[in-house]
């Protein structure tokens, strides 16, 4: 056993120390603590270890709320004070911008925060029959493992969903098809909660009846998904409220399918959309682009300003949903949507988009480097808001926008979309330098 002083924590909640001149990542350590640790692995330029004893406890250490924390891999930072978690993510963002992008924001924005418990309105849970555990397990994977965690509740799921885990386990265990039901997707809307069950084979009638009885008892709606996400369909009850979420600041309701991509944290998403709107500052008469627009999460809010918004997305299904949402919210004259693959044909995408006064980009983890490189030198958008789920690709693309395209990185900040986890989401504002 070796003693170390934890100098900081990384975005995964792992303590960082220097031991004998070598960087050492110590699982379970919190900034300022003096700990005894066991070295688990030695790599070329760093070591990995785990705390065995806390000799001097940090004021940032808190008691995890979840009794399965440490085993379940759904969270990684419940032992760290909430403010310290956000500060760690902010450091990760700043470090990536400086190290990868060679850029420094003119201002660090206040973090976008929201509910830290019961916040996951979207979740994908594994369902696995494990004879040694006495039945079916329902939950996230164990930490650093492919095994499913043996849990009976979850503090980051909405309380009404968490309470159903024991009964779900019991029901699935009794089903004939229990070893052919690998996944349960949860989607919580304003007026309905949908459970999408991945069924590898058609359900026997007695299994189907169990699902119907469960739905009737708990007021949820079952969907079945026999193959890919597009095959998901309502099962019981067939008549149920539409699945949607609201952006009350903009007077919007956005409908979606339970397998569509939507933000996991509805409360944080509301703050994020308002932050993006304020930074981009769309005006009546302006033409605004929204790339990777999904089902219109940002597009429709921007259109309420009186600007003409063009959203572009690679998924035809999401584009159709965006158009439906525009019509449902009376914005079809202000918001139009195009289906185009922004990765395989970025040049064609920018041509179809045409000249825009301002631009919002919200790409997947791979970022939008080719889009950033392809922006025209003449007639380029005067302002860009970039929403990111990967600090490294944001930093890379920021380097292109600033060092190649002549933009200025005005501001950047973190978005705590996934409290207690290592996910670092962020938002950045660029404008034309001069």
Set out the fold topology.
Elements (H helix, E strand, L loop, with lengths): L1 E4 L2 E2 L5 E5 L2 E6 L6 E9 L3 E11 L25 H20 L5 E2 L13 E9 L4 E5 L19 H4 L2 H10 L8 E6 L4 E6 L6 H14 L2 E5 L7 E4 L7 E4 L4 E4 L10 H15 L6 E5 L7 H5 L4 E6 L2 H13 L6 E5 L6 H8 L4 E4 L7 H6 L8 E6 L2 H13 L3 E9 L9 E8 L2
Parallel strand pairs: 4-6, 7-21, 11-12, 16-17, 16-19, 17-18, 19-20
Antiparallel strand pairs: 1-5, 2-3, 3-4, 5-6, 8-9, 8-10, 10-11, 12-13, 14-15, 20-22, 21-22
Helix pairs in contact: 1-10
Task: Write a structural description.
This protein is an alpha/beta fold and 434 residues long. It has 10 helices and 22 strands. The chain has an 8-stranded mixed beta sheet, with helices on both faces. Strands 1-5-6-4-3-2 form a 6-stranded mixed beta sheet, with no helix packed on it. Strands 9-8-10-11-12-13 form a 6-stranded mixed beta sheet. The chain starts with a strand and ends with a strand.
Summarize it.
Helices cover 25% and strands 29% of the residues.
Domain count: 3
Distance between the termini: 57 Å
Strand order of the largest sheet: 7-21-22-20-19-16-17-18
> What spatial form do the alpha-carbon principal axes imply?
flat
Number of strands: 22
